Amino acid sequence: MKTAIVGCGAIAKMHASVLGEMPNVEIVGFADCKIDRAEEYKRQYGQESTGVYASLEEMLDAEHVDVLHICTPHYLHTPMAIYALDKGVHVFTEKPPAISREQFAQLKKAAEKGTARLGICFQNRYNESTKAMEDLLASGKGGKVIGARAFVSWMRTKEYYTESGWRGKWETEGGGCLINQSVHTLDLLNRFMGESAVETQANMMNYHLNDVIEVEDTVSAYIRYPHATACFYATTAYEENRPIMIDIECENMSLRLEGSYVTCIYKDGRREELSFYNGYTIGKDYWGTGHKACIGDFYHCLETGKKFPIEVEDVESTFQLMMDIYQSAREGRIVLSKENRNG
Ligand SMILES: NC(=O)c1ccc[n+]([C@@H]2O[C@H](COP(=O)([O-])OP(=O)(O)OC[C@H]3O[C@@H](n4cnc5c(N)ncnc54)[C@H](O)[C@@H]3O)[C@@H](O)[C@H]2O)c1
């Protein structure tokens, strides 16, 4: 399988190193508008024959590419994915799939149209701890889900924003701590709830980087599901990157996911803790460790014709919920999910 990466910044090294370990995969090109970054990637992860390009268009014109990995800023994911899909190239894109409902609708249309496949990197779905939570919920051991809460307390410095050129701006990042950092946790929460939300009430603030970013550094949401409610809180104004925490309240116990630990907390106070090693990681710990499993599964599905479990329709519920949170915070009102589900 001939593969290529566009966007040779921080996260692309995770993709390149995973691809480098996979049999039957050859990286044929790196593209970055800062060409020296693509050249550096070639030195680290490429071969003599690997091409280096200043744009996606040049790369796809020059190389035969079976799979494109998109590791560029958020606002480019949808247009780059559509460009490649239209050329029959399979796409594996970093999250988020889009930065607006309009982009998402265009992406969905493009993915449905042709034969090329689109996979989205929500790698934390592959964590052993995630699977353990899902298994416990599916076992019915805890009884019905009656509520939930989720917290993300991370730190992002001024430099994280000023050095990138695209982070911290609505136009290019599409939001702040929600769309970039805590979307993974929102995704897990939403999956654990087992159904789509029906209404959302949210607030967002910029507490600590007022002079640096225009997007939110903190968001809170009260999300109503058909049979339960969930409270969600995320901030990048904290002093540390603490493990994420999700509590699912069931009739007979609470199920807690905290980092890579899963704990059953019984009504009488007893606790059973399961500890997981979530596998391979390079880069930052809080990226999680599922890239290898997620990328590996995408290629396995391409080779076998099986459905990849994180295609555009599989992220729609989380994506629309994220948009509902932003809309509610912006408009200062409760947003009903059904208002926006035909876009
Ligand atoms: N899944 C995860 O846990 C995870 C973790 C970190 C980042 N990400 C995602 O990865 C993506 C990239 O994030 P990052 O932190 O690596 O950003 P980054 O700024 O470090 O890298 C982005 C790269 O894209 C290049 N680029 C920008 N415009 C381009 C264009 N038009 N053509 C070609 N290249 C272009 C930049 O020069 C830069 O090298 C984001 O979508 C981010 O949300 C995901």
Task: Set out the fold topology.
Layout: E1 2-6, H1 12-20, E2 26-31, H2 35-45, E3 51-53, H3 56-62, E4 67-70, H4 77-86, E5 90-94, H5 101-113, E6 118-121, H6 128-139, E7 145-153, H7 158-162, H8 170-173, H9 177-193, E8 199-205, E9 218-224, E10 229-235, E11 245-250, E12 253-258, E13 261-266, E14 271-275, H10 291-304, H11 312-331, E15 335-336
Parallel strand pairs: 1-2, 1-4, 2-3, 4-5, 5-6, 7-10
Antiparallel strand pairs: 7-11, 8-9, 8-15, 9-10, 11-12, 12-13, 13-14
Helix pairs in contact: 1-10, 4-5, 5-11, 9-11
Nicotinamide-adenine-dinucleotide is lined by residues 6-12, 31-34, 37, 55-56, 71-74, 76, 94-95, 121, 123, 164, 180, 287.
Short description:
The chain has 343 residues and is of the alpha/beta class.
